[in-house]
Amino acid sequence: MKNASRFLAIGLIGGLIAIILHIPAGFMIGAMVTVSISRLVCLNLDKAPRIYGEIGKILLGTFIGATFDRYVLVQLGSLLPPRAVAMLGLIAIGLALGWVLSTLIGLDAATALFSLTPGGLPEMTAVAQEVGADSRVVATLQFLRLFFS
Predict the structure, then answer these.
(1) How is the chain split into domains, by residue range?
(2) 73 phi and psi, to 5 degrees?
(3) Which residues of the chain have pLDDT under 70?
(4) What are phi and psi of 20, to 5 degrees?
(5) CA 128/CA 55 separation, integer angstroms
(6) Residue-wise pLDDT tens digits, 77-116
(7) pLDDT digit string (tens) for 90-101?
(8) What is the widest separation between alpha-carbon atoms in the chain?
């Protein structure tokens, strides 16, 4: 439990710093960077408890679900045809680039695909972890995509 408290404190500090610096997705990015650095320089920090990831997914799902209402559904209905074309195009590009990344660098297909698929960093990382992809690589490449775009 002591280790869990350290992770939360380090993540909170990193998140607050990122928010102050106006970094996109500041709490997540700041926490991810500071906890990663802490694990790299401090050998007595074990992995974070698995329950942290599960609680994070519940909170993320709750947050996203709470944004839906009738107005959003009406808007989605009118945007369905162009969004369907855009989604199919993004899926095709993601599959092609994922195959290239997998072939050239040797990443497994799932990691390569989720690393390049446009989407929210937390969502892509969570889904990647669920399907057995290397969520560390996915989170890092998604962070770079977000940071440099």
Answers:
(1) 1-48, 67-149
(2) -65, -40
(3) 1-2, 43
(4) -60, -35
(5) 16
(6) 778 888 889 989 988 988 898 888 889 988 898 999 888 8
(7) 889 888 988 888
(8) 54
**Distances, alpha carbon 41 to alpha carbons 5, 12, 33, 61, in Å:** 18, 18, 12, 33
Cα separation, 48 vs 136, in Å, equals: 13
**94, 117 Cβ separation under 8 angstroms:** yes
pTM: predicted TM-score of the whole model, two decimal places? 0.62
- Measured CA to CA, the distance from residue 8 to residue 99 in angstroms comes to 37
64, two tokens: 């996203």
Residue-by-residue DSSP string for 7-71: HHHHHHHHHHHHHHTT-TTHHHHHHHHHHHHHHHH-TT--PPPHHHHHHHHHHHHHHHHTT--HH
The pLDDT score that the predictor gives to residue 1 is 57
Give the separation between CA 25 and CA 122, rounded to whole angstroms: 9
